[in-house]
Amino acid sequence: MMCVHCGGRLQRGTAPFHADRAGYHVHWDAVPAWVCSQCGEAAFDSEEVDAIQAALSSLDAHAQQLAKASSQLE
Ligand SMILES: [Zn+2]
User: Fold this and answer.
1) C-alpha 5 – ligand 1 centre gap (Å)
2) Does residue 5 form part of some domain?
3) What is the pTM of this model?
4) Is the dihedral of CA 36, 42, 43, 45 positive or negative?
5) Is 23 left (phi over 0), alpha (psi -120 to 50) or beta?
6) pLDDT recorded at residue 33
7) Three-state SS for 67?
8) How far apart are CA 71 and CA 74, in angstroms?
9) Cα(56) to centroid of ligand 1, in Å?
10) For residue 66, is it within any domain?
11) Ion ligand 1 neighbours, Cβ < 5 Å
């Protein structure tokens, strides 16, 4: 696999990933990824992207609950 940014070689490793959502932020320290040996850019397999999206959609549902509960306090 080649890096889309610099053409360097991608190696199996881990990379941090963060997502800014409405009202909260998520940060994973180490997600399995392909990391460029040249520029350090990370690419995620669809398997990991799917897992992240599943985690976020579950978090979204609970975050909505919390947002609703906190808005009733005001
Ligand atoms: Zn690169």
Assistant:
1) 5
2) no
3) 0.80
4) positive
5) left
6) 97
7) helix
8) 6
9) 27
10) yes
11) 3, 5-6, 8, 36, 38-39, 41
- Domain-embedded: residue 18: yes
Which residue type occupies 71? S
CA 6 to ligand 1 centroid distance, Å:
4
- Structure tokens, 55: 């985690």
The pLDDT score that the predictor gives to residue 22 is 87
Number of domains in the chain: 1
Residue 26 sits in a domain whose CATH number is 3.10.20.860
Instruction: Show the domain range for 47.
Output: 10-71
Local confidence pLDDT in tens for the 74 residues of the chain = 899 999 999 999 999 999 999 889 999 999 999 999 999 999 999 999 999 999 999 999 999 999 999 899 87
- Identify each DSSP E strand in the chain by its residue range: 10-21, 24-36, 42-43
